[in-house]
User: What shape does this take?
Amino acid sequence: MNAPTHHPEPDELIAYAAGTSPEWVSLVVACHLTYCAECRDNVSLFEDLGGALLDSIDDATGAPPRPNLDVARVPPASVSAAEPRAQVAGIPSPLSDYFQDSPPRWRFLIPGLRHLPLNFSVGGIPARVIRFKPGFTIPEHRHEALEMLLVLDGELEDGVTHELFRTGDLSRREPGTTHSQHILGTEPCTCLVVSAGPVTPSSWLGRILKAVTGV
Amino acid sequence: MVLTAPTPLTAGALWSFSHRAPWLLVPLGPRRMADMDRTSFEQIFGHFAPRVRAYLLRQGLNASLADEVSQEVMLTVWNQSERFDPEKGSLGTWVFTIARNRLIDSIRRQRRPEPSPDDPCWVEGREDPSPELQAARRGRVATLRAALTRLPEEQQRVLEALYFEGLTMSELSEKTGVPLGTVKTRARLALRTLRGHVGGSEDE
Assistant: This one.
């Protein structure tokens, strides 16, 4: 598989390493990292930078009370003891904590569109994993807030810039931008879509789609 | 300097070597923290507990909460010492990630999704560190630490705000009145310099 070519911004990787990004951005970044060794390498550098900054604090005054080590030491929980997490083929594991259905299942939205509902929303707008059939076109729409779309499988083309997005590629839509997307190839395309604000369809078709699907 | 073999070599002794002179770790071979004893924990506590507490104070916790959470973080270091492998990373980074995760989990009540190498979707890349590269990286935190002190003050300030005050670049710009573009440029320059010191690629 080719390495992703569309990455999160350096700020977003630093914020992920520093632990300051909102959960929804961390979720998208963690899914991207599953596919992208280059960004994993950067995050590891940024975590080392966190370690170096922590180590550089030289004006610390006062330490916390010492913990009682006699009662404290417990064997670390073994990995196998952890509850097995739900897995869906082709869906990266950071999403496993967020499936709405147990067991998770694909739900029908409209012909050509299925989704895996997630227990997660940003400002009342649910995050979704959407599976588009080949040839599907997402009609032109305008983003009122930042949207992140991460391709998990398949291939799509941006209708305005004609850039290609494949597995692991992140498409960021800045507030106030308008675009459309087209699913390429003969395989379905699966995407994680998270918006920080509403999307306004530009066409009648888009409005009908939005009314029917809520997407 | 003559290294008369201190036997047995405790993780604590290793830690103090690695902290002051990371290259000393190289000839010592693989050694885990599994045998962390009370003396070595005392050393680690003495160094990191005040720093973790200061980190939490800068993140906006009050003194009593910072005491409580930093104590929990140090307890996690003691309880999970088996999980720390000095071959794979530095103690400072490990303590930092524990403190960061505790802050997100207990204080912000959020999750922090992380990728897993066991995930069937995981894609290996040529950037994934080889054992040789990992060995070379053991000294990376010490290198970064030294390089940080030589950065211009305004660049240090941006990094501290991002890591310690939980601010985004736009929030830092609003708070300080420095234009967002300038904040971003300072962060980019700082990263380029730091990357140069640790031998990473400088193109970003």
Remarks:
- The longest strand of chain A covers residues 113-122.
